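in:
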């Protein structure tokens, strides 16, 4: 019932403040309100750019960072630590934004991210830098989840593709520009500027948010309590309760399980003592999460997230998307260099072309889902993606660079047709008071899928390489051989077979998403009346 009461408060119409139910302001105030919404959108794009640039801009400066601070054996935690912190905090921030509003959560996350950036620039050794990267990740979780939620708050359903296309463009530009910016800063300035450059961007985003984002006050009542209405008709309710025990349990459980997945097969064998201990601890913590959340009045991960068919189906489908995305993002650059003989810059271009077609397809997807619905549009996209991924192992050896480039261009178009309708559709099935939790659950599943995919496909690739080379190589030794120009023909063929196997696995993940949507998702999403 509370979700129904909030239905009328969801969107800005004509530029009124977020969630305002008043009619659009006419006269001289209307342009002011429109400019205010434009300023908020600019702030959201800047905040998203901070999160999107983070990994790509850091990756190109790793040699300089390691050369200055040392710690080559643990530098991968610069990325893993950040990813873990972002992933496990997404559900927490989603619930907090539903409880206290988007603005305080977004401001707190931006401040935490900028503090982490400043500390990273001041790091004195690799251990300190990794710790400060985790601080960055704690803020990054708030940026990713809250920006996507606010995007749905700001626009009614028919206009949401506009803001989502803008955010997709931010990711695309960041993917292309990030490595170049990081390389320039590392080569001509100092690697610490990679983190310091976040400060002016983040400060501008914060200023725009604080000045222009205005949310009406919403009263949150505890579950099972009756709302009291006074003579004025103003609703009053008890102070909102936060499930801090559940938040801590979710954070601990996610951190332990994701650490096991990230480090398994890398820092230690899968069946070793540390790996088994982490998985056992993670399962025990998962049981603790279930117990705490079932007893909580306002759980961090409410049961309705998985009891509602639409949300559950979208969560599983986008989890599969995270899984399949690992194949091109992690393994295609190695394939381009080892099999096609391309240089690092050209190999990066082969991958980056999908960032051009993805946002364009996402922006145009509204013309499709308005005719055939959210689910069928997503089925069309992921079905096409399955065929494209299956085509990759059929490429000739060694082949031409245009062949995988064309496939990546088509894959980006297919996935844009898949992801955006699901995100817009699922956000439109809930009211304001549930949108943050719903959006966070979707992003959490996608991030978790990427983590699982990196572990699973890494094991698949290493297994194929070991079989083809008689146990003489893995991805790490291969990378050293390629960099030194000493890779043999047998090694190159082994790489082709390994990447082909990974793409077959990715096509299975895409097919799984297709089946999940076909069997679980309703043909017409139960979109709320706005």
């Amino acid at each position: 019932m509370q979700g129904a009461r909030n239905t009328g408060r969801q969107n800005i119409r004509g530029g009124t403040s977020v969630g305002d139910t008043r009619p659009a302001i006419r006269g001289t105030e209307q342009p002011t309100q429109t400019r205010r919404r434009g300023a908020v959108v600019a702030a959201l794009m800047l905040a998203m750019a901070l999160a999107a640039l983070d990994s790509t801009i850091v990756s190109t400066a790793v040699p300089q960072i390691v050369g200055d601070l040392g710690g080559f054996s643990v530098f991968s935690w610069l990325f893993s630590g950040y990813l873990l912190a972002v992933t496990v905090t997404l559900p927490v921030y989603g619930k907090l934004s539903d409880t206290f509003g988007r603005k305080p959560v977004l401001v707190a996350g931006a401040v935490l991210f900028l503090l982490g950036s400043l500390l990273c620039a001041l790091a004195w050794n690799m251990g300190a830098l990794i710790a400060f990267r985790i601080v960055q990740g704690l803020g990054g979780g708030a940026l990713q989840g809250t920006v996507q939620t606010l995007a749905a708050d700001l626009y009614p359903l028919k206009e949401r593709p506009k803001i989502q296309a803008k955010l997709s463009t931010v990711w695309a530009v960041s993917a292309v520009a990030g490595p170049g910016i990081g390389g320039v800063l590392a080569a001509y300035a100092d690697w610490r500027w990679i983190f310091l450059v976040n400060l002016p961007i983040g400060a501008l985003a914060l200023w725009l948010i604080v000045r222009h984002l205005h949310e009406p006050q919403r009263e949150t009542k505890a579950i099972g309590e009756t709302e009291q209405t006074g003579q004025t008709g103003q609703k009053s309710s008890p102070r909102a309760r936060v499930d801090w025990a559940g938040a801590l349990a979710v954070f601990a459980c996610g951190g332990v399980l994701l650490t096991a997945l990230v480090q398994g097969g890398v820092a230690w064998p899968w069946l070793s003592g540390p790996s088994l201990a982490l998985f056992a601890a993670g399962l025990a913590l998962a049981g603790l999460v279930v117990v705490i959340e079932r007893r909580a009045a306002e759980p961090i991960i409410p049961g309705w997230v998985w009891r509602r068919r639409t949300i559950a189906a979208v969560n599983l489908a986008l989890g599969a998307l995270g899984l399949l995305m690992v194949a091109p993002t992690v393994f295609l650059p190695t394939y381009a260099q080892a099999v096609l003989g391309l240089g690092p810059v050209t190999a990066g271009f082969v991958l980056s072309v999908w960032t051009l077609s993805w946002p364009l397809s996402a922006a145009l997807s509204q013309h499709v889902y308005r005719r055939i619905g959210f689910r069928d549009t997503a089925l069309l996209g992921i079905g096409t993606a399955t065929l494209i991924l299956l085509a990759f192992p059929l490429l000739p050896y060694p082949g031409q660079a245009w062949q995988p480039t064309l496939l990546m261009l088509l894959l980006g178009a297919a996935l844009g047709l898949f992801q955006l309708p699901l995100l817009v559709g699922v956000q439109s099935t809930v009211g304001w008071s549930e949108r943050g939790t719903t959006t966070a659950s979707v992003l959490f599943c996608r991030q978790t899928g990427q983590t699982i995919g990196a572990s699973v496909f890494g094991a698949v690739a290493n297994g194929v390489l070991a079989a083809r080379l008689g146990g003489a190589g893995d991805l790490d030794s291969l990378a050293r051989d390629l960099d030194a120009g000493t890779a043999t023909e047998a090694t190159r063929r082994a790489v082709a077979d390994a990447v082909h196997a990974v793409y077959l696995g990715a096509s299975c993940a895409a097919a799984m998403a297709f089946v999940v949507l076909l069997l679980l998702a309703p043909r017409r999403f139960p979109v709320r009346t706005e």
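note: The longest helix spans residues 432-469.
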